Amino acid sequence: MKFHEKRVIVTGGVGGVGQALVKLFARAGEIVLFTDRSEEDCAEFSRTLVHKGLETSYIAGDLRKKINCETIITTAVEQLGGIDILLNNAGIIPHGTILETTDDMWFSALDVNLNAAFFLCRAAIPHMQAIGGGAIVNTSSTWGIYPGPGHAAYCTSKAALAALTKSLGRDYAPDNIRVNAVCPNEIDTPLLRNDFVRRGIDPDNAIEKLGKTVPLGHVAKPREIANVIAFLASDESRYICGETVEVTGAKPVYG
Ligand SMILES: NC(=O)c1ccc[n+]([C@@H]2O[C@H](COP(=O)([O-])OP(=O)(O)OC[C@H]3O[C@@H](n4cnc5c(N)ncnc54)[C@H](O)[C@@H]3O)[C@@H](O)[C@H]2O)c1
Fold first, then answer.
1. Model-level pTM greater than 0.90?
2. Domains, in order of start, for the chain
3. Mutation test residue for ligand 1: of 183, 191, 194, 244, the one with most atoms within 8 Å of CB
């Protein structure tokens, strides 16, 4: 995939898929600004990138706050001179049926998985219009398309993100701004592993076992999802717009 010094924002940049995205775009020579919750984690990841010869910038902040979302966009415009690609990758997965979902779990899921993408897209789109186009890739989930059991807040937030993606894709296609979403099944990242740990299950064994349920033979590696996101952000996918792309290793999802 060819990019030409694109200015790229990656949210959740310190997480499993986020790190893969930051490295992929930085190695391709793009100008990357990543963001995540903790200043310390961002700084540490930035140092590891510098050791690999990769230069990026970062801004830490909690995406549950609208002001932080808007600051990410204004900072990117100030520091990078504009925005070509916005990757709304940050996400959380509160576990529970509706009766197990507290107000805080519900609002956090909607704030991180949906509202942050809304604030970031709304702030970024005028800057993309000003330069004649851009690409936005949101990370939804197969469970946003086929809601699975026991995750009311997560499934709702990811379904709404998929709907937002289609809506923006249609509204801004005439401005040459392509908005798409990737909908992965399980990915081998801290999000998945921490859930096994929470349930007292060894994550290595669990991931191996889970891999046997996937026709392609393994749980997705972060890079395998990052590659699809990069494709959707690249000119190679220039006729794909307003789509939700399922990435499942041929594993049937719940539904
Ligand atoms: N791992 C999976 O099995 C899986 C499956 C389908 C979809 N997804 C989605 O993929 C995306 C990437 O997830 P991942 O698997 O790499 O998980 P991850 O937990 O490794 O990374 C998510 C990142 O988002 C950041 N984040 C969370 N809340 C935040 C907040 N309030 N403010 C700022 N940053 C915040 C975290 O700090 C973390 O670095 C998420 O949107 C997730 O929902 C993951």
1. yes
2. 7-185+220-243 (3.40.50.720)
3. 191
- The residue type at 246: E
**Predicted confidence (pLDDT) per residue in 72-109, tens digit:** 999 999 999 999 999 999 999 999 999 999 999 999 99
- Measured CA to CA, the distance from residue 113 to residue 116 in angstroms comes to 7
How far, in Å, CA of 157 to CA of 219, rounded?
A: 23
Active centre residues (catalytic): 154
Whether 19 and 92 have beta carbons less than 8 Å apart is answered as no
Residues 19 and 32: beta-carbon distance below 8 Å = no
- Of 84, 89, 78, the C-alpha closest to 18 is 89
Q: What's the gap in Å between 89 CA and the centre of ligand 1?
A: 7
What's the chain's length in residues?
255
